[in-house]
Fold this protein.
Amino acid sequence: INHIVHNGGLYKRPFNEAFEETPMLVAVLTYVGYGVLTLFGYLRDFMRQWKIEKCQNAIEREEQKDFVPLYQDFENFYTRNLYMRIRDSWNRPICSVPGAKVDMMERVSHDYNWTFTYTGKVIKGIINMGSYNYLGFAQNSGTCQEAAAKALSQYGAGVCSTRQEMGNLDKHEELEKLVARFLGVESAMAYGMGFATNSMNIPALVGKGCLILSDELNHASLVLGARLSGATIRIFKHNNMQSLEKLLKDAIVHGQPRTRRPWKKILILVEGIYSMEGSIVRLPEVIALKKKYKSYLYLDEAHSIGALGPSGRGVVEYFGLNPEDVDVMMGTFTKSFGAAGGYIGGKKELIDYLRTYSHSAVYATSLSPPVVEQIITSMKCIMGEDGTTFGKECVQQLAENTRYFRRRLKEMGFIIYGNEDSPVVPLMLYMPAKIGAFGREMLKRNIGVVVVGFPATPIIESRARFCLSAAHTKEMLDTALKEIDEVGDLLQLKYSRHRLVPLLDRPFDETTYEETED
Amino acid sequence: MDIKSMKNYLYWLYCQFELITCSYLMEPWEKLLFYTFNITMLVMISYTAYIFIPVHISTAFQFFLHLLGNQYENTVSIVK
């Protein structure tokens, strides 16, 4: 199902996004499964209460039994009775660099996932489909690693101060100039932690008397930052421009709720790629709306920087727009650059203001020098300034891998959410037992995947999320696809009712990108 | 070979049942409890069906026959 949006010529390329509806039978059976597990959860809670069974989860102390109960809400019930049963698919300890292949420590549980013991064996060469390693810079050898080692021997590992006090190294200044040049903005500032970038800087930009319009499926860091700021928050439906326009019109016509005064500022919070859905924001329309209603735009490019666009400069380049139209461009270095930290880019006055007023600049430790060097080397590599075409090849390889993987999965008959071009591929599982079964079966076949359930997703829409990488070769993808096919047949995951016509086996060239089917 | 593929198919069906009702995730004693309950309910329902359905069907059949039979006689007499 391809939706080609013609919106007054705002889009220069087709925007193919699809979220197939849950089949009715699958939804009913999912509820049946959750119902059975809930009944058994009540039975186990009863047995734990009456001391028939040993209680291994957290309970209140004897003195606290008469106070407000701490562990009686649904989240704790879910954790005790459903999450514990499938807990072995998460928090798996890895013991090598998280590149295209990873080593994992084997662990077993003898009391149904309440405790784990290590067998001592290390499973080597697991194909890694879960790490945010979009351009393949998570390496322990090569130019980035050598430069980082040199910086480590020159500066050490710790900075021992905040940015405003003694933690402002010349490396940080170099990094910020480079980031500003990479994004095409006037100035940029880098912070030590991506989550803290969002949650500590939004309160510095908006306050009481301002309005925040945030997407339904925004990340926890954006939600936390919005709540901490004290501004009024209104939510629009995911990627739905009619909903956003209605909210903007209402805000401008009616003003603040009680006093009817105009809002001081209206800030729209969106993300470049939404990591649970794999969808890309409709940026041309958002920018058109922002200009029409004179509001500000905060774009969180955590997953899309380096992963989208012909030269890896993110979702703004992907749509061919002007970076100066986005007021605050935020991103992280964790995903495509193989490092840690976040940045904010924008006009010089804005960044100078943030240098003084941001909580993160005043109180948080600045980036560690080897990490800064890794970011500088990888960014220069992507821009092509180190003299090789390695960066450009990585970006192209990621785009090819994305298209190939998504098309093959759709042909096999799985339900895949999201945009055709996003390297985040969510595969729908729906039933709770299949979450645990999928994780375990894929590990048996030496492929590491991330499965997600409630509360990160709605309760029936649990999924397995694949993150593609430029480091994956076609052979690795083919192996992974073969195993996914096998597991899909074993667990009956091929729910899709729309079948794509499989293409002839042709070499991957430019013409294959343009084909669409109706 | 046919028996083997039949057994594999039945085992695959049993796995699907386990996945859908989440008995794949249960501990052995929970599975025992769940299956005992299910099999008991199934046996009771099938026994009830075996005893009562033929009686119900024959009663219903007689009722409809009586209804239609009277109608047929009435129309025949008018034509005469």
In short: Residues 3-79 of chain B form one domain. Helices of chain B lie at 2-20, 28-79.
